């Protein structure tokens, strides 16, 4: 028997689940609030300049299943392989390699000394000082006063738009690379050390921007996607789930947990209260088509300092694929995070930001060939001090509901990149397969477009 499965959200998580379940012969309906699929992984072609709408996205994964899946997905159009070279712009002359502690010797001498001395002091003091539970204090405890002053604190204040002492540290594991003291000392004396290596080579689609991944994932289920349909009501009645009036056996929800109380009828009141208090940040992204003389040979650059304007990170997107910009031209993709009111992404806002990047010496604002902007209201989880308690309460309530599956970056409030979302889909699919069995085929297996939307290859029906 085919199961009927409603999937709320047509981002990478929802689309991958739809693909997996449809391949088993189940009847899936993907409801996407927006008028296009892809969530945070969308891309747009702006006069030949590719624009990844939520900021710089790259393909890298530690999950061998996901790596193999990508290989198959792109078998007809292999991805680009890019050697990571990223920098921190300290001042106009000093573009310090990342990770910062492995490259302190690339700083001006005085800053190098402050960072090195700070790292030694922190190293000596750590065994006798308890690990701080808030991120602001943790930075200095872990990395020392110099690294805090010259990079970590200004950068994190810029990106998180909040008081770092009001953030927890649970999200840092594996995200902030740890450099041995020996490496820092070597770096200080002028030998930049490598730092962590798992992103040292990454991939990127050759055509159509980062979106090509989910476009290919979605290809076999195109006719099961309902665009412009925001799911507003999910209710358990008897042994069925009613999603906006239609009956389903299972619901997979990638709806952000903070928005779930409005949608999930009868949600446990304490869990609903906790869900409403989860915090997040938005990202406004801007693309600037530029003359190639302004393109540096880097992947992305961190801009930690206030004098560099509001952008926290800029990506030279034209360095990822020759198809990301017209011949002889380049592009800068700039990210500005926000809490509350979104930055101006209209033409006026684009112009103002170009001026600020120009003032920092990063482009010539009068020579910008083309620009565009996009706001992504729900982009980063904000890890406040109560985050773990709130999230655990919400997930305990959701995971206790039979046939309801919370999934995805904001559907579970996990700091997951899209590869980790795909891995979670593979895990959920493996858990569901014995419960659902194989569907009948005629109801579940979609016919029609299996060759890839927008003329793109469909890849395998994993
Ligand atoms: C600045 C930035 C940089 C990143 N860099 C990388 C990177 O380098 N590599 C990488 O792999 N990942 C990266 N990510 C993470 C990646 O974008 C996410 O992991 C991925 O998009 C999560 O997919 P998702 O489907 O879970 O959620 P989303 O992409 O958020 O999609 C959720 C979808 O659900 C829809 N929706 C929400 N509510 C409803 C509703 N009620 N009804 C119907 N539809 C609804 C939304 O419109 C959206 O389309 C980055 C993210 C950001 C913000």
Short description:
With 462 residues, the protein is an alpha/beta fold. The protein is built from 11 helices and 19 strands.
Number of helical regions: 11
Widest sheet: strand ordering: 7-6-15-16-17-14-18
Structural class estimated from helices and strands: alpha/beta
Q: Average pLDDT, to the nearest integer?
A: 93
Corresponding CATH architecture of the largest domain: 3-Layer(bba) Sandwich
- What is the beta-strand fraction? 15-25%
- How many separate domains? 3
Ligand list: flavin-adenine dinucleotide
Quickly list its features:
462 residues, alpha/beta, FAD/NAD(P)-binding domain, protoporphyrinogen ix oxidase, domain 3, Polyamine Oxidase, Chain A, domain 2, 3 domains, 5-stranded parallel beta sheet, 11 helices, 19 strands, globular, disordered C terminus, binds flavin-adenine dinucleotide
Would you mind describing this structure in some detail?
The chain is built from 11 helices and 19 strands. The chain has helices at 12-23, 64-73, 109-125, 135-143, 145-160, 181-188, 212-218, 269-276, 347-359, 387-399, 418-436; strands spanning 4-8, 27-32, 43-46, 49-52, 80-83, 87-89, 95-97, 201-204, 225-227, 234-237, 240-243, 246-248, 250-253, 279-291, 300-302, 313-315, 329-338, 370-382, 404-406. The strands form 5 sheets. It has a 7-stranded mixed sheet with strand order 7-6-15-16-17-14-18. Helix 1 runs parallel beside helix 11, helix 3 (109-125) crosses helix 5 and helix 4 (135-143) runs antiparallel to helix 5 (145-160). The protein has 3 domains: 4-40 and 211-276 and 386-455, FAD/NAD(P)-binding domain (3-Layer(bba) Sandwich), CATH 3.50.50; 87-188, protoporphyrinogen ix oxidase, domain 3, CATH 1.10.3110; 280-382, Polyamine Oxidase, Chain A, domain 2. It is of the alpha/beta class and 462 residues long. Bound molecules: flavin-adenine dinucleotide (FAD). Flavin-adenine dinucleotide binds at residues 8-14, 31-34, 39-41, 54-55, 57-58, 230-231, 254-255, 263, 283, 335, 379-380, 408-411, 416-419, 421.
